[in-house]
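Obj.: predict assembly geometry.
Materials: sequence records (below).
Method: joint structure prediction, all chains together.
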Amino acid sequence: MSNVVTPAPAPAAPPPVEKIRIKVDGRDIEVPKMLPDWQGKPVPTTMLQAVQIAGGEVPHYCYHPKLPVAGNCRMCLVEFGTPMMDPATRKPVLNEDGTPKILRSVLPYEPQTPRGAIACATPISPGMELYPSSPATRQMREAVLESLLINHPLDCPICDQAGECKLQEYSVEHGQAASRFVEPKVHKPKAVDLGPRIILDDERCILCTRCIRFTKDIAGDDALGIVNRGSYNTIAAAPGRQFDNNYTLNTVDLCPVGALTSKDFRFKMRVWFLKETKSLCNSCGTGCNIQVGSRENVIHRFEPRENDAVNSSWMCDAGRLNYQWVGRSDRLQEVLIRGARSTWTTAVAEVVSRLISAPKGSVAVVASARQTTEELYLLRAIAARHGAITDSIPREGEGDRLLVSEDRNPNSQGVRLTGIAYTEMGIRLPEIAEGIRAGRIRTLLVFGEDVTQYGLDAELLGQLETLVVSDILPNATTALAHILLPGCAHVEKRGTYINVKGRVQRFMKAVEPRGDARPEWEFLAEIARGLGVASGFSTIEGLFNRMAGEVPALAGVEWAKLGDGGVTVPV
Amino acid sequence: MSFSVPQALENELDELASHYPQKRSASLMFLHALQEHFGHLSQEAVDWTAQKLGLQPINVYELVTFYPMFRQEPLGKTQIKVCRTLSCALAGSAELRAHLIGKLGLDSHRHGPQTTVDGQFTVEFVECLASCGTAPVVMVNEDLLEKCSVADCDRVLAKGRK
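Observations (raw structure tokens):
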């Protein structure tokens, strides 16, 4: 499934997998007798899974590997046959050439008509033959698709799902060019305000119930159901109730058609214009894998990216919508020295010369647990040269049982493992404050945190000889900076985070930084090089591999081995 | 008007729910009992049932909207159900409904139950009342009128107005 790379576990012999021999489109294959269901419990392998293992595909709407099987859309109908048994001897009946005679499944009252079975919910049995490409199967799919489109409004030109719609995709493959339906279509509620983040178009809905199952069985909020009868069936929340939990937007991803749409995204952008970049959510310590959808340097949406070691296929609504600040107009875009615009060359040289002349023990560093591991590593290396106190700021909130972590920093483990704060974050801040007050600490480096809110107030910062600040958005600390270095949002650079469970994951750059802003690791590397504390790399890959060689917990990990799903390290 | 279920009825329903291995199975019985008592199933009745049976309101609301004989609005004092399934349709049930609708000043094009403004009568088409041999049939509250004629309908209206 995913190309997740984990350090090789102790070579224990895996338990033997019981296999079944079947035929798919005439080809012999062996498939496991049991496979995990949506909860990971082993259940008999289904026809759909067997076809997938054989390299084929069975079109489907209601089936989703991460949800309980409902079997209501009928799109996955597949013609099949089973070995014929002699009722008297209970032995297989053989053809003249010795092969087992196969009984094609037919309608009981119409033996000339093939009968399909829904592949998503029908277990395979030994000797079974599946015909996912047979004319009969194709005919069944066509009929089901035609029926699903009977009352569908076909408003694809203005539908947000267009371009990533299963109705469209399967219509190309299995549909008919012309509609035979001449009767008036059933009209259902349009633009239903289902909750604070979701709009429902009931006419586009094909009643697959993925949204109902997700919110009931995964999110644990039994808020949706099907009301009314027959062709008037509609998805709805109970009257007067809102569909409002922290996971509602996953139903928009799950909806195979354009029925459920995100209020945030609808009518904003045609999906085929979006550039997709593999990234991570940085709203909490879980580190959900995401895909950033951007166009011409503007981010339009975050979507969850499957990683079974971290977030399955989901993400929370709060994290998903936490992207708009990246495009804020008050982003820090200029390198400033004492308030005057400067250049990176000048500013980096200035920082280096001030640090070189700073006596040992007179420097302190406040890093952010929102920074990448590479940046924290470089800051730690710079701090070590000066015997500087380092610390970071903890950020806590309420967690939940699904994805949201109590730790609202994306890289607390990075802070710990690089040694910025070995134990609890924030406990050395009073020591830094006291050092500044006593005049021992004369130089302070602050990265991505407004320290005036954590005990280092403006008056205290005013006593410093040098205050170097790097941040993304303006705050009280950036206003006081002697040297201000504009940094990047994580979607504007590459790097890694280490989540609360020790998963080292990398993220890619989706959009360009604003103005003069640069990835922090780049200018930190220049400063470190100027100080003679880090060299031998020029790329993020090189930096990561160098860091992995020095940070004990990352021993043996390489950038290239992280893959899309990351690697778990002991924490 | 605040919603309150009499203690006796509540006790009866609690007892009923205890007969089922899963309380949810008692949903329909609850709804029937509440409709019999209140005349219709208000949102409060749905919420009360859900709360009693440990369900979410949507689970109960699905049932209420599925079954046509569950009413979400109060109906008239005299409820007239005209059968429209095959035998009755052939025997002239459409004329009976048209007559009743006309007499009561209701809208013949509207679907579903319709109630007169004075709240005296509700008229609706229903599916088979299981008396095909004596078509057309009409149910007036709990009484079945067999081989019903226009004159019979007029008598029902006259009686209901008293």
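Conclusions so far: The beta strands of chain B are 78-83, 114-115, 121-126, 138-140, 143-145.
To do: check interface contacts against the pulldown list.
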